[in-house]
Structure formats: C-alpha cells, structure tokens
C-alpha cells in the first residue's frame, strides 16, 4: 500500500529553486533510504513531504489509512532531536512513556499494555537498564537511542527519520538498521530514512533514493535499486530465460 506519493515537486528558497521536479514513493512493508551529497536538500525534501515546508508546485500525498484501514500513524525523527540539556527533568522511562499519550489521550491513565510497549522499545535500543536515569545525564548516543525508543513506543505505521544514527557507534547503528528492516518486513511498517552513508545500511534497505545535481545545478531524484534487489531481479531474468528454452 502506498503511504507516500510525491510527484513533480519543486521547492524554492526565496526565489532560488532548490528541488525541481522531484518524484518518489514509499510503500508499506519497505525500508527506503534517502541519500545525497552535503547540501543536497535531503532534509528540505523530508520537511516538504511532511508539510512543514510548502512546495512551489507538484503534489504530496500521504495516505490517511494504514493497511488495516485504520488512521495512519506517522513518526518523524528530525536531526539533533537528542540535544537535551543536563537539566532536562524527565527520566528515560517517563520520556518514552510520553510517546504513548497520542494513542491513549493525554488525560487517560497508562495501562499494562502501554508499559509493555515502553519496555519493548527500550530493550530494542539497549536502554532498559537506564530507565530510571534522567535524560540529561546520558551521552549523546544514549539520548539518541532513547528518542528512537519513544518513537517506537508510539507504534507508528510510517517512520520518517533524518539521520537517526548520529552519535551512535557502529554496533548500535547496525542494530538499529536491523530493527527498522524487521519493522518493515515483519510488521508491514514503512520506513523513509535520510542517511549520509548508504554503504553502511545497504544490507538492510530495500531501495535507495538519491538526490543528485543535474547540469543546471538543481537536485534531481534518482530511485536506485540496492545491490541485493538487483541480484534478485537478475536471478528472475535468468530463471525466465531458462524457462523459455
């Protein structure tokens, strides 16, 4: 099911076009990465897709329903989301639990089901043992993992992530990519993730959308197959040729 469908999007900063005729899509059940050189307007494309910024022309369609016919739930993790200062008053557990309120309502008491979601989310990012610590006491990488746990606790259908592994070590990053792959392929979630290192995530992602300058200096959008997907397509072509012999 198509959760994001962007067609011929053009965005201007003042009078200067930054993105021109961009088209891409993201479906349920797939993990898609968005890459491009520094200054390639990746974050701008994400914000325009979300409606935070408004395009000069083109269309952006976000599904209002998930695959079960229920209201689509979306989670957005921007850059530098984990810049909590030392005086941030919430504990890790309280902060992650706050991700459940949009589902339950701000004035409804959290129950056992909510507590289970919070524990699962913290365990998934290796932060359950830190649940009683104050957010401000954590390292940058730990704060980032807690922010990701809060996002998971909200149980969205669509994840939109802007360089979410900033501040994480290689092992934590790999675990996170595996977690997102699992969310997409096992639970039918859709994932769109901005990354500066496509090689690091290529074994987990299904497709890579790459922003590249054209001859006029504007960024165009190229939908690239991953190496793994290319191998599958090649194998299918070989099988078809054999069957036709």
Automatic annotation (TrEMBL):
CDD domains the UniProt entry points to: ABC_Metallic_Cations
Superkingdom field: Bacteria
Residue span(s) of domain ABC transporter: 4-238
A Gene Ontology molecular function term of the record: ATP binding
Family annotation (InterPro entries): AAA+_ATPase, ABC_transporter-like_ATP-bd, ABC_transporter-like_CS, Metal_Ion_Import_ABC, P-loop_NTPase
Keyword entries, A-Z: ATP-binding, Nucleotide-binding, Transport
The protein, known as: Metal ABC transporter ATP-binding protein
């Amino acid at each position: 099911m198509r959760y994001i469908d962007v067609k011929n999007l053009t965005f201007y900063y003042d009078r200067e076009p930054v993105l021109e005729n961009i088209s891409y899509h993201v479906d349920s059940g797939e993990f898609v990465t968005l890459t491009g050189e520094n200054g390639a307007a990746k974050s701008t494309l994400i914000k325009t897709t979300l409606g935070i910024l408004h395009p000069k022309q083109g269309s952006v369609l976000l599904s209002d329903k998930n695959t079960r016919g229920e209201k689509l739930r979306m989670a957005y993790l921007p850059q530098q989301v984990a810049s909590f200062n030392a005086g941030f008053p919430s504990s890790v557990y309280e902060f992650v639990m706050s991700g459940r309120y949009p589902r339950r309502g701000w004035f409804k008491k959290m129950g056992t089901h909510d507590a289970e979601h919070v524990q699962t989310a913290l365990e998934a990012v290796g932060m359950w043992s830190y649940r009683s610590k104050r957010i401000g006491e954590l390292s940058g990488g730990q704060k980032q993992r807690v922010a990701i746990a809060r996002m998971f606790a909200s149980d969205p259908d669509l994840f939109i992530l802007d360089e979410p592994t900033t501040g994480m070590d290689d092992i934590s990053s790999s675990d996170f990519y595996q977690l997102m792959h699992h969310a997409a392929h096992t639970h039918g979630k859709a994932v769109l993730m901005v990354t500066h290192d496509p090689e690091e995530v290529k074994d987990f992602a299904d497709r890579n959308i790459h922003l590249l300058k054209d001859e006029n200096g504007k960024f165009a959008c190229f939908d690239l197959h991953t190496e793994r997907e290319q191998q599958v397509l090649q194998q299918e072509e070989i099988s078809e040729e054999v069957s036709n012999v």
